[in-house]
Specification:
2 helices; four-stranded mixed beta sheet; alpha+beta; 79 residues
Length: 79
């Protein structure tokens, strides 16, 4: 499965669970996760998409930790 296929699967899963999902293409912060999943009146979820064998960059790891320090939920989704 390609990362794009994994991402499409995760978007569908999150939308089926009631999230409003936004795919981030370009931001002012390098390493920000690929998706933001916004539930109704609950915590925002930042989702970094990787293939089964895909690795996080050091910057991506830093951004996930940074987001968690602000109280946001994060995940690394591998399909």
């Amino acid at each position: 499965m390609t990362e794009q296929q994994v991402q499409k699967k995760r978007i569908k899963q999150l939308e089926d669970q009631g999230y409003y999902v936004i795919k981030l293409i370009k931001t002012n912060k390098n390493g920000i996760p690929d998706l933001i999943a916004l539930p109704k009146g609950s915590k925002v979820l930042f989702s970094e998409i990787k293939t089964k064998n895909g690795n996080l960059s050091v910057l991506q790891e830093y951004r996930l930790q940074e987001l968690e320090s602000f109280g946001f939920a994060t995940e690394i989704y591998r399909g």
